[in-house]
Amino acid sequence: MTDPTDRRPAATSDDVDAIRRLKARYFRLMDTKQWDEMRSVFTDDCHFDTTADGAPEIDGADRFLAMIRRFIEHAVTVHHGHMPEIELTGPDSATGVWAMEDELWFPDGGPIRHLHGFGHYHETYRRTPDGWRIASLRLTRLRVDRQ
Predict the structure, then answer these.
(1) Domain 13-146 part of CATH 3.40.630.30
(2) pTM across the whole model
(3) What is the pLDDT, as a whole number, of residue 6?
(4) Rounded to the nearest 5°, which phi and psi values hold at 55?
(5) What is the pLDDT of residue 109?
(6) What is the pLDDT of residue 138?
(7) pLDDT score of 125
(8) Which of 44, 63, 100, 108 is deepest in the core (most CB within 10 A)?
């Protein structure tokens, strides 16, 4: 039941478009290594679960960015998100699942030279005063090819 005293606007298809643009910005900023701008994609308290890749669960956008930056700073990366399933769960909340594919090419001398992955991002989103932000992110992989 809707609260008649709630003055917040209802979520609309414009919100779904804003979430799609948010995720597009996430991919672009990661691949172009624009770390300061990428920070604005997440809520401060964002929860990250990339345990499927062997990483620990992390709470906090700053901690996550420090970890991911150490991992891919010197790699060439290409991330793609496809066919989002976005559901508005409230006026300021949403969930989404994105089919994904990524390729990472690491510099010579590392344990991995190339990684090609396929899977899904499972996310929650929260509307903030500055717009929609990723509030949680879980990466699951269906296949990973490594060289």
Answers:
(1) no
(2) 0.90
(3) 55
(4) -90, 160
(5) 77
(6) 98
(7) 98
(8) 100
120-129: pLDDT as tens digits: 999 999 999 9
Rounded distance between C-alpha atoms, residue 110 and residue 114, angstroms: 10
- pLDDT, residue 4, reads 58
Placement of tokens 């669960």 in the chain: 57
Query: What is the separation of C-alpha 19 from the centre of its chain, rounded to a whole number of angstroms?
Result: 11
- Structure-token pair, residue 118: 């396929």
Task: Please give the pLDDT value at position 95.
Answer: 98
Q: What are phi and psi of 63, to 5 degrees?
A: -65, -40
**Residue ranges, the chain, pLDDT below 50:** 1
CB of 86 closer than 8 Å to CB of 94: yes
- The label of the residue with tokens 């089919």 reads 99
**What value does the CA radius of gyration of the chain take, rounded to a whole number of Å?**
16
Closest CA to 18 of 100, 111, 105, 96: 96
CA distance 35 to 28: 11
